[in-house]
Design goal:
By secondary structure, the protein is α+β, with helices and mostly antiparallel strands. Helices cover about 20% and strands about 40% of the residues. It is globular and about 35 Å long. The relative contact order is 0.25.
Length: about 110
Amino acid sequence: MIKVSDQAREKVVSLMKEEGQTTESHYVRVGVESGGCSGLSYKLTFDNQKKEEDQEFQDNGVRILVDKKSFLYLVGTTLEYSGGLNGKGFVFNNPNANRTCGCGESFSL
């Protein structure tokens, strides 16, 4: 399961609206790929098509898709959003990560 904080939900809804999308018509696709200064990096996009190998979740009014490989790294993660002058944007609070980089965009297990 992947959770979505209230602040992240508000930002997702706002970004979708800017692109002419809604939480009913599109998903937030969350994934992990090789790269970043800690070895693995997070990937976050909008998608309107669920693939056969996708895991689907819904939390806080946001529909989420995660491919099976990425799900192993992301189980229990909360998607958060920090705005403002010192905000980082979207942040992944991942209990599986042993080490994260300073920017919070990559991690290792």
